[in-house]
């Protein structure tokens, strides 16, 4: 089922070699890993738009993205579930919006992605990278402020996508981000195979 869904889309975007690599990545991820892509976002800003559209699109392609309201159920421990998904994922997608930096959870997730040295693809939605700053919140420890500043500095210095929600087309940003994610997963799979040549390739 995963393969048939993804092949229809992949014919439009990838060469035969890349299509084969996508299928290999998908086959391995479906069996071994419950989370390919962690979607980091500010709920009140982008949950009903970019974040959910990306989640649904990646699911249709056969991947397993993580989005809090889609993957968490009553009784789950919030930090345990989120931290576990970040540790398992291969790629982080940070949908950074105007009120993103006000959220402890957004910044914690971004910091953990950076600390785990995950590949992070930022989408600057209605905000410029130069506008990213850690706010002064008395409830946050000095260590939190330092972690969050480091994470935002890393995001600022990472080439990402920009999107203006008042002018742009949501389908365009979803397609662009998905293409980048898939290419990133293929590259990571190839790197892993080169580092461990004795391991069998995904079928």
UniProtKB/TrEMBL annotation:
| Domain (TIR): residue spans on this chain | 33-156
Q: Which residues cross the membrane?
A: none
Note the Gene3D superfamilies from the entry: Toll/interleukin-1 receptor homology (TIR) domain
Provide a GO biological process annotation. Answer: signal transduction
> Which top-rank group of organisms is this from?
Eukaryota
> What protein does this entry describe?
TMV resistance protein N-like
| The gene coding this protein | LOC113865108
């Amino acid at each position: 089922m995963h393969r048939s869904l993804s092949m229809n889309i992949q014919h439009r975007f990838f060469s035969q070699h890349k299509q084969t690599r996508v299928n290999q990545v998908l086959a391995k991820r479906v069996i071994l890993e419950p989370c390919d892509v962690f979607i980091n976002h500010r709920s009140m800003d982008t949950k009903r738009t970019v974040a959910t559209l990306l989640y649904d699109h990646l699911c249709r392609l056969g991947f397993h993205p993580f989005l809090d309201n889609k993957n968490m159920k009553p009784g789950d421990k919030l930090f345990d579930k989120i931290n576990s998904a970040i540790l398992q994922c291969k790629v982080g997608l940070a949908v950074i919006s105007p009120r993103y930096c006000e959220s402890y959870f957004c910044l914690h997730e971004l910091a953990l992605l950076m600390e785990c040295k995950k590949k992070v693809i930022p989408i600057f939605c209605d905000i410029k990278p130069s506008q990213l700053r850690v706010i002064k919140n008395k409830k946050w420890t000095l260590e939190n402020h330092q972690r969050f500043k480091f994470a935002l500095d890393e995001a600022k210095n990472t080439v990402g996508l920009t999107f203006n929600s008042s002018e742009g087309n949501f389908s365009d940003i979803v397609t662009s981000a998905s293409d980048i994610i898939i290419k990133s997963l293929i590259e990571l799979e190839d790197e892993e195979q080169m580092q461990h040549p004795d391991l069998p390739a995904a079928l």
